[in-house]
Task: structure prediction
Amino acid sequence: MSASTRATGHNPPRYPTVWGRIPPQNKNFTGRSEQLQELYEGLRGHVTAVVPHTLQGYGGVGKTLMAVEYAHRYREEYDLVWWIMADQPGLVRSALAHLAPHLDLPGPGLTGVEDAANGVLDALRRGEPYSRWLLVFDNADEPEDLTDVIPQGPGHVIVTTRNHRWESVARTVSVNVFPSHESVEFLKRRIPRGISIEDAVELSEALGHLPLALEQAGALQSETGMSAREYLSLLSERTGPLLREGKPPEYPEPMTAAWQLSVAKLQENLPEAMELLRCCAFFGPDPIPRDLFFPVEEGWIRPELAELVADPIRLSRAIGQLGRYALVRLDNANRTIQVHRLIQALLREELDQPTRDAIRTEVWSLLSASAPESRTDPAAQARYQELLPHVGPARVAESTSPRVRRFALSMLSFLFVVGNYETASRYARVFIDRWADDSGDEDPHVLEAQRLYANRLRDLGRYQEAYDLNRALLPKVRRTLGRTHGETLNVLSGLGADYRARGDFWKAREHDEETLRLHEETLGPNESATLRALHNLGIDYALTSDFAGAQTRHERAYMLYKRRSAAPGSPVLLSFWHGLALSVRLSGDFTEACDLGEDALSYGREQLGVEHPRTLRTQMDLAIARRMSGEFEEALELALDVHSRYLRLYGIDHPETLAAAMCLTNIWRVTGELTGALELGEDTDLRYVRAYGPEHPYNHGCTSNVALLYRLLGDASRARSMNESALAALDEKLGRDHHYSLGVATNLANDLSALGETKNAVRLGRGTLRRLRALLGDDHHSTLACAANLALDLRIEDETAEADRLAEATLTALVRTLGREHHYTTAAHRGSRLVTDFDPPLL
Result:
């Protein structure tokens, strides 16, 4: 059965399994048969590689209605149909993200918008679980805006646009005004009580055959009983003044005339509905939740609208009247109101500046009043996602109201919680620029936005920018807010993270000791912000080789925060959990680290989502713990998965992608994939320099990993040269009594032994072992690795008695601490050399 037969037969076509955000079908849709057939046939011809099919035309010609009609008419062809408002490119991913649960993927409330959207795109490309899908991107502008969000796969894509540049990248279907006979057909259908063919012809010509204008005219005549003659008379009276006003070309004259007639009649019959419509004109063109219109604090909104929203019966009547006059599109299933962008523009144009300002202030107040306090529970996150598309079009950044700025800052916090760092940083920059112009660069809201912006820059791997911003910000917040204000303490915590990112580990530790003291004195020892400061200090302790001190602080932060915070889906709790697992691993208890890591990863996947940034960090560290415990297959599976996700989500040069690459390099080394490990390790080593700068300790740790691979592949001379260079740099940056430096020294002793320089290897090994025992203890795995290697070199140098004593004591300690079957223990028993490698902690 053909699609056209299905669409017109007695049995209506079934709805797809997933039917999302599709506007209601227009019962008066007329004509467009050739274009719909052209679109249908064209899409059928591309079943394995999507070529976006673009509906072009200027405002009001019916591009969106035609896409809606296509979706409804051919819905039986698809298992999934999803509608995306594409006029704000930065929010397209949000619309995609909400498709995730329908594909059995974590939604944006669990993973964050970026991760959820990327998961959706990947599923669509693979055609799993649906290969018959249709995406509609409505009101797109530049083709470049959608390049990375149009999936290549077995499904179909339709784009509606006014931009002719799409002709160069997509097959286009031009949509123009109605031909004369379709205009007449539409009017006869739209006006139930009847209109003569002669009047329909005259009216359609007067309205330029523009579908939106015809819809307005038909709605007005149908609702009011106005005759076509009367309408034409009024239209002719209005056209002259409209032309003299010199409306911009994007407002077609017929549309403007038809709209003004509808507005005049609405104003006459139900003036409060007109006030509601004017308010809607200052939101974005995306759907507006109807429950935004509710009584708020006196003085926030105009009296005439306040009276309407306080009466639910009158409000429903007004909304219904707007729908009957075709001035809004109502979606009763989702309880939303949507106004065509052309109507919005015309409404704004007719108002004087004071009225525009008053209504815009009203919209800011409605948005602010509807924002939840929570940012983590699913209902709150769903509300923020509904409000997000209106932040830009409503020009929220222009408000000087503290309550509106607080809403804007809450939106930034929400975007952080869901992991949408790019959008958060973009809006933060907009808020900062506008608020600083209006209120000065030391306004408290500007300072808070700058602090949030610095945090997002750091999350995006832009470490130097974050450091520079926080360095400039700290004296301002101290001067403006005081040395112990909560915002000052937040900036201090951020600056500590900046020091870590710069490789200044001791400076970060000293700084964070003082920051924690200030938190405890100001807020108390058990407040959330204090526990975050304690967690940060735990990271510092780990980076300065005090693993026991790190574990103590991480355990306290985790236990107290978990006890006092019952809210699900907390990225902070997962960070604390991950920090504890990391410190336990560094201390050498690999089994406990795996157990903690498994629990933390399960929480992250269930509560935040598989691709939330904090979940991915936890997964990567679990992969390291699995490798250290000898579970190589499990480690490899985790590492391959997390590396591929980082690549797709953040690109190859993001610091977290680089850390995942180095994690994978080390696992490939222990599983014997030396060539692949070397290729990935060398590439990652070069990228680390660009990410962190040439003097960062992580660069030299990565170089030592590559050197280790060269020795294993037979080039001990090159390995020695690389390790000597890395050790000299680490000595200068951190000192020899740091676990990074001592790890490289352990590997360098192996290089010297491989080159026959066992006397030098023994000398270096003895000194390194002495320092490791003092730093980490006799039974730490790094100490035992160095001791096992030294025993081998002592035996080569005929110092047999010392070698035997050291080898026996080392093997006994390995069995006691790691177990008889651990790969360190079995390697030492065989007389194989042990190595230390480097896994850069995420900062």
